[in-house]
Amino acid sequence: MYSVNYHRANSVDDAAKMAEAGDAKFLSGGMTLIPAMKTRLAAPSDLIDLTHISELKGITISGRTVTIGAGTIHYDVATHTDLKALCPALCHLASHIGDPAVRHRGTIGGSVANNDPAADYPSALLAMGATIITNQREIAAEDFFTGLFETALEEGEIVTAVTFEVPEKSGYAKFPNPASRYAMTGVFVAKGKDGVRVAVTGAGDNGVFRSEPLETALATSFDAKALEGLSVPSDNLMGDLHASPEYRANLIVVMAKRAVLAANG
Amino acid sequence: MKTTLTVNGQLRHLDADPRTTLLDALRNHLNLTGSKKGCDHGQCGACTVIVNGRRINSCLSLACMHDSDEVVTIEGIGTPEHLSALQQAFVSHDGFQCGFCTPGQICSATAMLDEVEAGWPSHVSADVTAKQDLTVEEISERMSGNLCRCSAYPNIVDAIMDVAGSAKR
Could you tell me which residue ranges the 2Fe-2S ferredoxin-type domain spans (chain B) (predicted)? Predict the structure, then answer.
């Protein structure tokens, strides 16, 4: 790790001001940024620690609208009683991120800002049509996730929360890499007022994406049977030592079936 | 960077480079070498310590992020003369071979048993509202962040079940 200056922020405004100097990066749980700095893939001049900002933490529910503070750790999302009653799919997703030690530090804001192509949360936010709130504006999930580790965030912009309307039905299923627990393919399905939306993570070579063939099939009948015999193209899917694009194409349909089964309870 | 930590109940002060991880601070600055550096990337769990009651990977945190936090390491869990119940059970059940992952396993299991006591469910729990019976499946999931390359897992699970008072396999 290269030398770095550390600053502890006590408020979002405080953090934004601190970030004006040098080549600063915001530090949340550090589950990705710290290893990236150790391998020198990231080498910021300054780290702005967001983990002590209380206004970034917590989950608020108003009717069917859920707002999750960016600094909320995965463990707190996984075990939130009221959220579990309203949107069990998201708690289920959070409970499958990494391992317990990772879930005690990693945050939803860090995950979406990092936009790892195999992270779990982007699929949920895209499928549920969530809005990402920053210290400057609100961005639709559709416009937020722009590519591999790329987002619409501008320099110095801080994710403060994500918010979404809980869909009528939702489900998530992933095929985890057995070592890292990252999604080798994860599918989030949501049936809401905008129809059926299916978002796929861990498979696309440009990050999370919506699957039109699956959405079309499920719009007719929101049932795992509607996906029988369906196949999706392997174009633009990732191929690596864990799985070929063709294997991931197959996993997308299998995970989508499981997600629909979960959504239908 | 001046940092104050409460480590195993004692106030400890250090003045380390900001990039010093909590693990390096414990091992190199405070001479608490029980916590081990395995992968140094949050994948193996050998560095697991308990911070403010929660188990975390100390290699994935900077020490300065934890200014004024409370840290418990393996040295705070027991001593050779006064082993904790889990430490004794690991010995009795031969829950290790080389022993490198053991401090992390025991810190993790210590916090894990508290989590179960507090009623925290895991994603393999059938009934998330009831108190969890620590089955092999529950323990495997809850201890999934701690790898043992000697594969002493069956004996580690036995040791944990013994302390948890679970029904024998």
Answer: 1-77
